[in-house]
Structure formats: C-alpha cells, structure tokens
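The following record pairs a protein chain with its ligand, FE2/S2 (inorganic) cluster.
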Amino acid sequence: MSQKQASNSADIKDQLRDTVKVTLTLNGATTHILWNRQIPLLDALLNAGIHVPNSCCRGACGTCICKLEEGEVRLKRNFVLSETHLQQGLILACVAAPVSQSITINYDEF
Ligand code: FES
C-alpha cells in the first residue's frame, strides 16, 4: 500500500468514526446519509438536501417528529413528547444527538 493510499484509508476511517449512518424513509422513498456527530440530526438531513418537516428547531413544536426504528439517539431537550411517545420510538430530529453508529428513522409511519 502506498503512502497516499494509507492516508486515504485513515481519512475514511476518521470520517466513519465521526459520522452515523442514517437510513430514512420519507414520502415512501428510502435514503441513506452520513450524519456528522457534531450537529443535530435535523441539520444533517437538511444539509444533505432532504427537506424534512421542521419549524422551531429547539424541541418545542413537534414539527420534526419521526420514528426511530433502529439505533439510539439522545434528545438534548424535549418539550413535546410524553413518556409513552418516547417508548413508541418517537424522537425530535432537531434536538437529536447520536448515540449508536447507525440509525433508521421513518417520517411516514408514526
Ligand atoms: S422543529 Fe420544533 S420540535 Fe423540532
């Protein structure tokens, strides 16, 4: 392996460590993006050009609700979802921080 190939491989490993693989279903279509761990899930989706519902961007309105089908996130704040909602897997994308290495979310069924 050349030095350049080794450098590229290290860069790819760094990128994968800093990102979360997101599989999402929206309007009947399934898409994959990489989520930079430093930003909220909603920002990652919007940055990827995916126009998901949003409004307040601070966990207060519920416009960005989606269902977490696989993986784990932590909500930085939550003024909307009840304990029952959380147990059903509902999350607020605007205040979601990653926990697991990959997640699957669905905007169509919740
Ligand atoms: S956009 Fe309002 S709670 Fe997420």
